[in-house]
Amino acid sequence: MSELIDQSELQSRAVRLVEAAGKAGADACDAVAVTGVSLSVDVREGQVEETERAEGDDVTLRVFVGGRTAAVSANQLDDPDTLAERAVAMAKVAPEDPYAGLADPGLLVRDLPSLELLDTKELTADELAEIALEAEAAGLAVKGVSKSGGAGASWRLAGVVLATSHGFQGAYMTSRYGMSMTAVAGDGTAMERDYDFDSRTYFEDLDAPAEIGRRAGERTVRRLNPQKLSTRTTNVIYESRAARSILGHLSGAINGASVARKTSFLKDRMGEAIFAPGIQVVDDPFKRRGAATRPFDGEGTAASVLNMIEDGVLQHWFLDGASARELGLKPNARAHRSGSGTSPGATNITLMPGEKSMEELMAETGSGLLVTDLIGHGVNGITGDYSRGAAGFWFENGEIVEPVSEITIAGNLNDMFQRLVPGSDLDNRYSAATPSVMIEGMALAGN
Asked: Within the chain, what is the greatest distance between any pair of CA atoms?
């Protein structure tokens, strides 16, 4: 599989661009070369519906001229000199940016760690179709499932090279495998659908296709004949799939760029307790086989594991070089590369689990709403106000009573974080990993 990407050619492209930018008059520069190949197969009702193969190849040069910067991209690199001259000309007329620049050389990665990012198993279209069909068949076999909403399987391979004018050169390759199945139950206006999926760096870590299909079918059948609830204040438990969105809201609020722009409701809370005592949130760029694992960040700097929330207290922002300079802080190697530059963000962020299972949280809570699905993006990053459409189950005496839908749950993330209680069922597969969580006293809008 790895022979599909010529990593030495990628590195050569990036280095040639850096050299050309220097000759064109750039004071400093960096170049990123990215290439990838992917294959996916979608099936429906026992037949292959679509097979798609994609290949991408892109190189981006970012140059600095005084306090000005510009970036240009190309799909091919036939003439690095022309590309470099264009980038320098653009930078000379760009507005000054006092925070732009390359990383401090003392922060650069010297030795790249081995992180198990590449599985060399290549799957054919026939093999992917077989996986998807098996998942679909398992979903359709669940009693109550009326038809398939489709199933799919995929793999992709990507290679990344970063070279800078102050001497950094780094490269890595990643693989990713995935599968999903959507099931449909009921018909007409009473139709319900749900899904299950898995995505891993190594093929051997994927859940079995039959397990994915079965779970999709069972989740769908459970949603049949949902009821509506009256408006009230209630305790809410998010299953782990839905709880990942809460971790996403936290990540956005502790992003250094948001803090610098003063668009985060947590911008003045560094060093304060924003969660209850005992809550831990860890960001780990070195998680083996992790979805967001990488040996260096978008600026080539060396990272470390960060306890973003320790015993409930906010300890760090996510910082790249520019946001750190603007805030007068030291960057912490959380730069994500885009075509025009970098922006800060999380890697593998995890809300560490508590001691009680989701079922134990339900029993302890007594009655409330179990959220399995969220709709919309009603979160105000400046105030922390939160309002999301939701579906799931009403439970009483710790037991599920009925499915519910067409409701809205609301609160403010400042208060929600303080009342959040994590369960023990950590789902550690994805870049945002959480257990189920319980939050007391949320507003529920229904009939």
From this structure: 73
Q: In the structure encoding, which two tokens stand for residue 447, read together? A: 């009939």
**What H or E segment, with its residue span, contains residue 326?**
helix 321-327
Residues 353 and 237: their CA atoms lie apart, in Å, by: 14
pLDDT-derived band at 190 (thresholds 50, 70, 90) equals confident
How confident is the model over 381-387, as a mean pLDDT?
Answer: 96
Rounded to whole angstroms, the Cα distance separating 69 from 88 reads 8
Q: pLDDT tier at 405 (50, 70, 90 boundaries)?
A: very high
Instruction: Assess whether 92 and 134 both reside in one domain.
Output: yes
Of the residues 187, 220, 253, the one at which a domain ends: 220
Count how many domains the chain has: 2
Residue type, 247: L
Among 220, 255, 286, identify where a domain stops. 220
Structural domain boundaries enclosing 385: 227-447
DSSP state letter for 317: -
The yes-or-no verdict on residue 2 having pLDDT over 80 is no
Strands (E), 45-168: 47-65, 68-74, 145-164
- Alpha-carbon gap, residue 250 to 228, rounded angstroms: 30
Q: Specify the pTM.
A: 0.94
357, 334 Cβ separation under 8 angstroms: no
User: What CA–CA distance (Å, rounded) separates 270 from 308?
Assistant: 10
Could you give phi then psi for residue 285, rounded to 5 degrees? -75, -10
CATH of the domain at 16: 3.30.2290.10
What is the C-alpha separation between 437 and 359, in angstroms, rounded? 11
**Mean pLDDT of all residues belonging to the chain:** 94
